[in-house]
Automatic annotation (TrEMBL), chains A, B:
The keyword Metal-binding applies. Gene3D superfamilies: 3.30.70.360, Zn peptidases. Residues 202-360 form the Peptidase M20 dimerisation domain. InterPro entries: Cyt/Met_Dipeptidase, Peptidase_M20, Peptidase_M20_dimer. GO terms for molecular function: metal ion binding; peptidase activity. GO terms for biological process: proteolysis. NCBIfam families: PRK08201.1, PRK09104.1. This is Acetylornithine deacetylase/Succinyl-diaminopimelate desuccinylase and related deacylase. Keywords: Hydrolase, Metal-binding, Protease. It holds the Pfam family Peptidase_M20. PANTHER family: BETA-ALA-HIS DIPEPTIDASE, SUCCINYL-DIAMINOPIMELATE DESUCCINYLASE.
Amino acid sequence: MTVQAALTQADTGLDASLSRLFDLLRIPSISTQPEHAPDCRKAAEWLVDTLKEIGFEASVRETPGHPMVVGHAKGPEGAPHVLFYGHYDVQPVDPLDLWHSAPFEPVMVKGPTGDMEITARGAADDKGQVMTFLEACRALKAADGTLPLSVTVLIEGEEESGGVNLLPFLEANRDELKADVALICDTGMLARGMPAITTMLRGMVGEEVTITCANRDLHSGMYGNAARNPIQLLCDILSDLRDGATGRVTLPGFYEGVPVIPEETRALWRKIGPTDQEGLAPVGLSLPAGEIGYTALEQTWCRPSCEINGISGGYEEKGFKTVLPSKAMAKVSFRLVGDQDPEKIRAAFRAHVQARLPADCSAEFVPHGGSRASIVSANMPFLPPALTALEAEWQHPAAVIGCGGSIPVVTEVQQALGMDSLLIGFGLEDDRVHSPNEKYDLTCFHKGIRSWIRVLYALTGNAPQ
Amino acid sequence: MTVQAALTQADTGLDASLSRLFDLLRIPSISTQPEHAPDCRKAAEWLVDTLKEIGFEASVRETPGHPMVVGHAKGPEGAPHVLFYGHYDVQPVDPLDLWHSAPFEPVMVKGPTGDMEITARGAADDKGQVMTFLEACRALKAADGTLPLSVTVLIEGEEESGGVNLLPFLEANRDELKADVALICDTGMLARGMPAITTMLRGMVGEEVTITCANRDLHSGMYGNAARNPIQLLCDILSDLRDGATGRVTLPGFYEGVPVIPEETRALWRKIGPTDQEGLAPVGLSLPAGEIGYTALEQTWCRPSCEINGISGGYEEKGFKTVLPSKAMAKVSFRLVGDQDPEKIRAAFRAHVQARLPADCSAEFVPHGGSRASIVSANMPFLPPALTALEAEWQHPAAVIGCGGSIPVVTEVQQALGMDSLLIGFGLEDDRVHSPNEKYDLTCFHKGIRSWIRVLYALTGNAPQ
């Protein structure tokens, strides 16, 4: 059975696979920082070369932002056609002083669990995950000379920075990108050694607000009390976003379209998922924040959230300065579930701010992306064979779970191409995604490659009638 | 009458006086930033050389922090002895991009009022003011060969950074520094062309608080809602510092020792002072913030305040990062009046924060100075002649006013040397003290020199019996 040949190929080729992953990790493709635009292009070109090497027809495709990577490899007549999606861009690396090794000089170190950890920005999100799929294709080609089904690869470079160019690109290239199912590798496992397919994803709205009071910075002795302090005003406005007693977001209509979680689902999650204490202990916390009456897991999997992602104003350096600043800024994001409408919530947030501004102060807003939540129908034909394939690799039943993160592509693929997605990923809770010392377990990378080999074979049984 | 000779000397020597001031302004003596420590020493040495040139015995005096400058010049037998105080250190210059010229390359430009403006960091606070006194002494020496009274000069380098070393220095050098009255030049006029002596000064307590929640930055998708957000927590804590309806500070006992302003004083101030609109218009505001029931002027002259001087947390740069940070920091200051106790208020603030911390979060505090408010007794013998001298120079009655700023030296001189202070300064509301493009009107500098010549003569009539 050739699946074995491909798996053996993945095992013997692991060192080579790793060195290719390290090459990609060395490219600082931070999409949100304009000075890294050339690095984003470099990552795209690296991926095109890699796809060609494996046997794909591949090219860099321009967009108004960072370029896309598209590749095609034809499988046997009548076999299904899958669209694989991933992203080559990464998050910024600050605070740099908390990294134990340079973010873009990948290293492999033994972690507290005893497993080796591939440490670098993007190791897990999403370069490491993208490479599990490409290396699986490489092993299949090497073992069989071909892939078991037709594969189209789409790798974008703006997932971490709003991704406004993805939907237009999907729509403009509908015929080329349409397939039977999308495979998205940007999610995690239920826990170490416990594979999962994510069927619920939260959407997101990002907003940046800058409050201006006086027309210049003032001396807090000369003007303190008398002139409005934009930091104080911003704190009042942000503090009002949540009800202190219930933890609920106070924006009018915010919970419209938020589905009630079925009791049996909650019961199942309480059985398979970590307790609040288990979930928070790894990050040094013990008390769940947010909404009263929901577990930490429920809050991240299927409840909407409101987070302040950044705040800045006045004198932030060493020492003290008795300044009463002219401006203060905050970055706020909302995670959405069910049918919550990103643009309605953006408008409600802006109205919340405007309603609290004195007549002589002003607010400016910068939008940072907006996407609806997405849910994969649990009865799609590709789901059962994929779950079986994952169980075979990990020797552990594969779970169907939710995810707190936002992966707009799921909604956009549905909207532009009318396709369902399978969200299969090998990340772990402790991967420090978006944080210093981001890592990806060697086991996740290795068994991730092997998992894709099994999944691609398993999906061949689902050729469209 | 030799006062005329000295005044003429001040007029003819103005250009030379200006070029000396510019030399001092070119030294970036920012006391709160450690990398500028050598510049602080340089400023101190420059002042010692200048004092010697004028005819003072002067020297740089070491402290655990930035050095002090002390100089002595003996006057006629039986004449009073004054202690002049000023500071050579300046505030940081950020935000640098808002300066129209380099902060430490002084320029003179025509201002909107038609007067020439000396523009540089420290032009008004306090180098320009210090130089009005030194140049007055220079003119007196040049005209009379001596000073009309004995003068001791004390210029410190930590007024803008907590000034913890001043009190110990005063106590350690009590005999050397004791005089009949202290002359402090770090305050302003009532308005352009309207001289004033400040008899009420607010004290200050500065605190820096850092809140820590998770032990590392988190992904707001994975942990949002479930893990405590330190920025949200900090906003809640800071928002609770003031009562939204009354604008009053909520710390228990905060208003203990705050004196009631006599109705006649309030009436007088309403007569001589600017209206709220007049006072706020220059900075682009129209509505007074802070406490309900007090004018902007009353709030800054004789009511305590609470200001957030800086805040920082999460991702503050361009673009967006869905991070849930581990820490958030704020710098807060309270201006004190009457008998408010700085240390009691510091303790109340820390208790306010601690009381609002969930059990799994922590707060660290850094104290930044603390001083009581000070009031100069209105019946001190040196006050009337000084007021008369100022009126003679400005051809406008000199007012007795309050000041929102904190000048700890007044309390410390009283405490360590048992001396009263006369606060005579020539700053204006629009000097942009602590802000970009700080300036000092040429008229204030010139007539400031002339004012000191008249004041020093006027005080000779008050030799101690």
